[in-house]
Amino acid sequence: MLYFLKLQKCNIKSMIFTLFAICCCVSLHLFCVNYILNIADDINSVFASKRYIIRKSKGTKYILLWTEHQDYLLLKDNEIIFPSRNCSISNCIFTKAKDLFDEDYTRFDAVLFNEAILNSKNRPLKRNDSQIYIFHTVESSYNVPACELFNDGFFNWTLTYRLDSDITWSYFVVRNRKGKIVAPSEKIKWRRSYKAVSPKIKSILNGKQKAAAWLVSHCKADSLRDEYLTRLQEHLFHFDLKIDVYGKCSESICPNDDCDKMIKKDYYFYMAFENSLADDYVTEKVLHGYNNYAVPIVYGGANYSRFLPVGSYLNAREMHPYNLAFAMYKAMQIPTVYQSYFLWTNLYSISDDFKSHHPLCKLCSALHRGDKYPYKEKFRLWWNGLNGMKWCLSNDYWNETSNVNLDAKHVFNFY
């Protein structure tokens, strides 16, 4: 009997010990599982935070960058970037993450495409009727023509350098003395100043000694600017003047690699020659002149009166090379003539500073206003121009005869 009682006590202790061990194992198991799940959740949150950020922000517009965009956009993925640009409406987010909504592209408010899309069939397979497709580029239509039929009726808005774009992306702006942006504009009315330039500007102008400089990296451009320059050099030679060429197309380099300082100190004129001729295509090249008190000599396909103050530049495409050479010589010989090219500084300023007027601010505002634009059914005609489809022809097509004869009066029915 005594032995049985001892055995019973032993079994009870064993059972208690066994139950305790089981409880410890279960607790340890639950702890490990919970710990692993927490780690997994943390890891998942790192990768999914961008995906679900959209669900945390109400009233925010989301724009998908479908194609790889250049650094000049200054965009940071999935960040509200506009506060730094002083936009009146800033709650817009740009992202490259196509999987933001589990690859449901139709849930984005807008999709932004650059010029690479013009010849690409890598496009969204479906779209929402309320979704805005935006074409954006700062390249000229000559360099990136829209050749494919599928470009027609694809875009809703355009965001380009063209003044007739839905939203214009200019390389620079002109402000009046009150700080209001007055150009580029299709309806600008320039004022003239008859007040002498400031003593500070006169001092800078009086130190100049050389005719003109040209910084160029694109050699043998199709705009035939090199051919014009050659003719101009021949006429300048008779006035004992010349144009100094710097950059990849020349063996000359700027002193201390500071071209702007050199232009400001030495040169009367700056050759702002575009590499292609396209409507409204006026790039930052003119700023090498204006920023350094050198009169820009422009060469391009734009109506420059929409962009630059009257009397502040010379237009090479409107002047015979000899007449341009003589105008340069005359300005260098007569200080008051040269100073007259800077009278605009009494009324205006030119800058590429995008503060308070960044084109992306306008885009954000337009999305929040709910601006609607129909599909651009004749996008290729608008972008290329009436005769621009010729630039879609293969290189094998072009020869000396077609180069000469295929102009605006030879319109091909490509649209």
From TrEMBL:
- Look up the signal peptide feature and give its range: none
Its membrane topology: Single-pass type II membrane protein
Identify the keywords attached in UniProt to this record, alphabetized. Glycoprotein, Glycosyltransferase, Golgi apparatus, Membrane, Signal-anchor, Transferase, Transmembrane, Transmembrane helix
Task: Supply one GO molecular-function term.
Answer: fucosyltransferase activity
Q: What is its main location?
A: Golgi
What pathway is it annotated to?
A: Protein modification; protein glycosylation
Q: Which locations, inside or outside the cell, does it occupy?
A: Golgi apparatus, Golgi stack membrane
Q: Where is the Fucosyltransferase N-terminal domain?
A: 60-171
Entry annotated with the keyword Transcription regulation: no
Similarity-based family: Belongs to the glycosyltransferase 10 family.
State the protein's name: Fucosyltransferase
Lineage from the top down?
Eukaryota, Metazoa, Ecdysozoa, Arthropoda, Hexapoda
